[in-house]
Amino acid sequence: MIFDAARAAAIELLSPPFRAVFIKTLGLTVLALVALWFGLTSLVEWLALPWLETLLPGIPSWAGWLGGIIAAIVLAFGMALLVAPVTAVIAGLFLDDVAEVVERTDYSADPPGRAMPALRSLVLAVKFFGVVIAGNIVALLLLLVPGINIAAFFIVNGYLLGREFFEFAAMRFRAEDEARALRKNYAGTVFLAGLVIAAFLAVPLLNLLTPLFAAAMMVHLHKAISARESRR
């Protein structure tokens, strides 16, 4: 089930509907980062530099310019690090669009799922952002423990990403409690699927597509598990 779901999701990433969602997501990400860049640079110019000049009144003018250049480099580096997390948050707002494409394309005979309310989608997007950040902080700490190293990244992210995205796919057809119970019943399968998503997340540039890939994959996995439950 897992590899079938992953293969189907990977193929669908190349389809026009998925490309449209990704371009929309990337465009909004660029706008958000540009706005953040101007906001932070303005904050540095209005607050940090005058404070530095007050603190060090004898500072030469060239030092102020040098400080501004260093601050710009630091901000640029920070923006580069934020590309993937910000893309993940914005993509989280379009997960229902991805799920609808998969359901309409591959499961047209089945009843369609219910889209989440806008507020719930926003909460899920922020939650996904928190999961990624928290998971990688924990993984970073575990990297300091001898013998664990890179395995920590995959275990932590595999569990967290598998849980969040499977419950998202399941909640389009089930109540939240029922979706959570189904995920617990298939905890091993969901975790292994999460490991596939974590591997996808570990690839630079490709990781920008992680939320779209994960949503599509878990829609397929939920459908397969639901079919198995129906046969039982």
From TrEMBL:
<feature type="transmembrane region" description="Helical">
    <location>
        <begin position="148"/>
        <end position="166"/>
    </location>
</feature>
<dbReference type="Pfam" id="PF07264">
    <property type="entry name" value="EI24"/>
</dbReference>
<feature type="transmembrane region" description="Helical">
    <location>
        <begin position="122"/>
        <end position="142"/>
    </location>
</feature>
<protein>
    <submittedName>
        <fullName>Sulfate transporter family protein</fullName>
    </submittedName>
</protein>
<keyword id="KW-1133">Transmembrane helix</keyword>
<feature type="transmembrane region" description="Helical">
    <location>
        <begin position="186"/>
        <end position="202"/>
    </location>
</feature>
<dbReference type="InterPro" id="IPR059112">
    <property type="entry name" value="CysZ/EI24"/>
</dbReference>
<feature type="transmembrane region" description="Helical">
    <location>
        <begin position="62"/>
        <end position="95"/>
    </location>
</feature>
<keyword id="KW-0812">Transmembrane</keyword>
<keyword id="KW-0472">Membrane</keyword>
<feature type="transmembrane region" description="Helical">
    <location>
        <begin position="21"/>
        <end position="42"/>
    </location>
</feature>
